[in-house]
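Researcher: Quick one. two chains, 638 residues in total.
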Amino acid sequence: MLSQVVELIENKDNFAITTHIKPDGDGIGSSLGLCWLLRSLGKNAEVVMNGGIPQAYSGLPGVDQIQNVSSVNGKYDAVFVIECSDLARPGIEGLEDQFTVNIDHHATCEHFGTINWIDSTASAVGEMIYNLCKAIGGRITPEIAECVYLALVADTGSFRYSNTSDRTLKVASELVKAGAKPAKVGEAVYNSYPWSRIELMRQVLDTVKRDGTGRIAILRQTLAMGEEAGSVDGDNNGFVNIPLAAKDIVAVIYMREIGKDQFRASLRSRGNINVAKVAEQFGGGGHKNAAGLSINGPWDEAEATLITAVSAAIDAAAS
Amino acid sequence: MLSQVVELIENKDNFAITTHIKPDGDGIGSSLGLCWLLRSLGKNAEVVMNGGIPQAYSGLPGVDQIQNVSSVNGKYDAVFVIECSDLARPGIEGLEDQFTVNIDHHATCEHFGTINWIDSTASAVGEMIYNLCKAIGGRITPEIAECVYLALVADTGSFRYSNTSDRTLKVASELVKAGAKPAKVGEAVYNSYPWSRIELMRQVLDTVKRDGTGRIAILRQTLAMGEEAGSVDGDNNGFVNIPLAAKDIVAVIYMREIGKDQFRASLRSRGNINVAKVAEQFGGGGHKNAAGLSINGPWDEAEATLITAVSAAIDAAAS
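Model:
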């Protein structure tokens, strides 16, 4: 609960903050935002993470001070664990021996923390960090504002997804008033890729096709494409959503080759079409409109299998 | 001025509203938003326009009541002219004989109206319509909220452009509270294209290349591509921005073939690179970071000419 978090911060001094590996914008923005908040209150705080930080977040204030670690010892009064479904997600050993504060906005989150503050009405953990700042009587510094604004932008698709509430936009307004620059954050999140993203997009989009009914779009990313483009992790962010620009497309299957006859598939859908259930049939999972799974087999066969499964989900939603 | 607009509305009863031909989201959203505001105040109001409405706006409340006209006579107490640089932009005859109210957020707008209300600090005319509603003591109905929210989204690139202020986001928050649905508006603006958009994107992106310095990206759209894709007006919206996702690209040249050796070129740039000045060299114009022009000649020669001109603008910005 929020009141427990406030009390902890008021009574202790040494904190670490961590989030899941391969952090998204909400994970990294909220972690840094909380770090700046704690420091502004006169506390010792540092962000600890295992692994690299995507280029999109390299301009955030404090990102150069993040500690790259694979374990933590007992030197902290508490470790804040941001946007993690369980305690293994940060990929850091020793967390189970720490006093941990679990902060998340996913209702499905395990209550693994010593304190658990879960608010599934928040669009992003960033919104919760803003609320924490207000609850503790802190000032939104320009550093907090920039980090938390990025968290909001990342998790709401720049205020386009259905999780965008009037409160989200009110918080965003306050963050801009406190110094966040929407254009700067937008450039960082959407326009800081290497050229290989464009080259990869060209090749992937060249494979686009529709199923026989014209309702499902299919995209393929071969191993060779990634190599030819010299692409890096994350270059294909959002490619799966491109065909949804066409109003008649209600689902997308994005198949990425990861080895001989081995594929990762990302699924997207509109409205009531539940692709999480499709993914579960293949041992994967996700949300209703965005899910993922692994599948083997000759490419054409695996694709046909997925088209059949997604078609069934479309028909189920229509009935 | 706003006070004159309020006084006019309070004292008169019969209004028309119009905007420029080929309306963008701000033009159509603000026009319909104002129409709903006037009606909620018990006034007679209708939107009159010359020409079609893009598919993206077909779901807006009131769009089916828009009058398609090529001229207006004297039956209105006043005609509101939304987001037009001059009185020719609506493409409607007879406006010069009307009492007109010019509402715009572009500082360069001609003061062609009987009343001129220009607010260049507003991100969109939509923000001004919200302010008008507040100034006149009106209630933000769900219809007003949805139309004005779309206007804001369209003119700020979903709150990503530098015109997004804390006031913009505050207004957006109030509109959502009043009934606007961010996800619905986002779907309408970004995801309501025909399939031909995807096919055209595939073909255009297949032409992507960089200049020798790796700073300029070039895209080509041939007449044949549009025909093969069966594409419609607006299908290529935003294609010119795709290469800006790569951080090393500081300018984009998008050349669209419109006839034998005839081209329309769209230019985009980052930061201080002024492509409006480049466009002016060829009789075109626009804003610092987004401009357009017409150019003739064999394709390769015209392209080389533009690369030289844009390169000079890049060098000028760096010096």
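The longest helix of chain A spans residues 299-318.
Researcher: Thanks, that's what I needed.
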